[in-house]
Design the sequence.
């Protein structure tokens, strides 16, 4: 007959994926760090966030559109859906952009390939226009679903940029091969372009073709940077703490490979 | 209330999916797949109706604009004609649906994709200007990488190829990994903000 510890071991082996344990512990550390910085008083103490040129230029881009009486185009790319954190980050930036376009009374176009993103974006923009005090300026038809096909979407957005010549183009989200097609078209149209993506391959194209590019975590920090919300800023601090932890582990791993060449404690 | 209910659903499923990810029991794996795949398809199907309705409404409004009407008519024609053809003659190999797909949609997609080649050239021309020391290093590295891959006469031998491999494997890869760590951490904190209800922008208006 099996005793209790043996039964527990069998249950753990049958239910828990032991291979995922390091990921589980890393996730728990991340959750605890975010909870600490967000809900603990000391963690929420004000701190300075470095200037991000691309986000500083948001106001300039919207002001330019108002002066030129041309629309602003914001698109989240073809590669992502609403489940992706990059899309959520892009929608957070969209919220701040929409609030300013409402104040300046500029037209904000939002073409997308995904009907779920379209529905969420319509809600986000409507909320931003209400927050700005101009709900009547919101036009639901400016947030459109164009095509689920990658190059169908690229052709539709490219056509909009070519015909409407937007003063400012925001390419923020998950982009694939369509990134350069859109960025170069915006460049030819003379638009001021702010871009950011989680794809390192497409980042290179954006750096070359756009005026400002949000690199890496800058895209995710944008929400706190633009809204100045203390809770969101605190989670950016959590990001920095985790970065320090990862850097420390990497440095310790490098030192240990010099000291004990066969050591592999850091492999998981 | 309009924002509270979706937030509760989001937080609940966020926690459930987090726990299920670390379980290996077949029932847990099956539930994980059902939530991430089947539930998602149901939501998408309903949202697609909203998307198509929006597409039709926006394009019908644009019909009066002479400059946009050719594109609008083509778009609407495609939207209605394809399902009609699929329903009447099916979507098998020799059906009209497949003929239109292979002879209209595929060439159109290939044409847009082909634009990329020209845009790569124009973007490279602008990017590879030796305006500063980092830009010059980038230009020289790019030239070596380009020549090593197109060394048709064998003038550069293995050294250029080895150098370009070194650039890709070390300086380029380390920069890429640095960016990827930042993106990973950003994704984690953004997801946690949504699950914990700190980030509520995606919920839209509270009516």
Sequence:
């Amino acid at each position: 007959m099996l005793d209790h510890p043996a039964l527990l071991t069998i249950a753990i082996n049958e239910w828990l994926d032991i291979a995922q344990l390091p990921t589980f512990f890393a996730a728990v550390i991340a959750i605890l760090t975010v909870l600490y910085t967000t809900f603990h008083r000391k963690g929420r103490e004000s701190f300075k966030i470095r200037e991000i040129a691309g986000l500083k230029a948001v106001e300039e881009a919207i002001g330019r559109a108002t002066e030129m009486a041309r629309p602003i185009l914001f698109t989240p790319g073809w590669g992502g859906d609403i489940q992706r954190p990059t899309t959520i980050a892009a929608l957070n930036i969209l919220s701040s952009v929409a609030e300013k376009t409402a104040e300046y009374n500029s037209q904000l176009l939002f073409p997308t390939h995904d009907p779920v993103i379209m529905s969420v974006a319509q809600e986000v923009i409507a909320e931003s226009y209400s927050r700005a005090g101009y709900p009547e300026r919101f036009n639901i038809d400016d947030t459109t679903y164009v095509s689920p096909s990658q190059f169908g979407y690229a052709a539709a957005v490219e056509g909009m940029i070519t015909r409407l010549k937007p003063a400012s183009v925001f390419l923020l989200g998950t982009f694939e091969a369509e990134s350069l097609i859109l960025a170069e078209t915006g460049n030819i149209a003379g638009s001021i372009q702010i871009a950011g993506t989680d794809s390192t391959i497409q980042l290179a194209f954006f750096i070359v073709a756009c005026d400002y590019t949000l690199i890496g975590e800058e895209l995710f920090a944008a929400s706190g940077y633009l809204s100045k919300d203390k809770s969101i800023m605190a989670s950016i601090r959590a990001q920095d703490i985790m970065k320090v932890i990862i850097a420390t582990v990497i440095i310790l791993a490098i030192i240990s490979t010099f000291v004990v060449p066969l050591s592999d404690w850091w492999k998981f | 209330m309009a924002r509270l209910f979706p937030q509760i659903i989001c937080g609940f499923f966020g926690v459930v999916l987090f726990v299920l990810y670390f379980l290996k029991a077949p029932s847990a794996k099956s539930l994980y797949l059902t939530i991430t795949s089947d539930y998602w398809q149901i939501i998408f199907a309903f949202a697609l109706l909203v998307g198509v309705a929006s597409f039709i409404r926006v394009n019908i409004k644009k019909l009066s604009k002479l400059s946009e009407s050719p594109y609008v008519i083509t778009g609407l024609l495609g939207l209605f004609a394809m399902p009609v053809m699929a329903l009447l003659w099916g979507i098998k190999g020799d059906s009209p649906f497949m003929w239109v797909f292979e002879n209209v949609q595929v060439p159109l997609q290939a044409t847009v994709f082909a634009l990329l080649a020209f845009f790569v050239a124009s973007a490279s021309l602008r990017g590879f200007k030796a305006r500063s020391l980092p830009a010059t290093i980038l230009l020289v590295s790019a030239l070596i990488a380009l020549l090593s891959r197109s060394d048709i006469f064998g003038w550069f031998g293995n050294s250029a190829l080895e150098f370009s491999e070194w650039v890709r494997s070390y300086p380029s890869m380390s920069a890429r990994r640095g960016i990827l760590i930042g993106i990973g951490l950003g994704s984690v904190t953004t997801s946690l903000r949504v699950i914990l209800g700190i980030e509520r922008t995606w919920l839209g208006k509270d009516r």
Chain B touches chain A through 64 residues (CB under 8 Å).
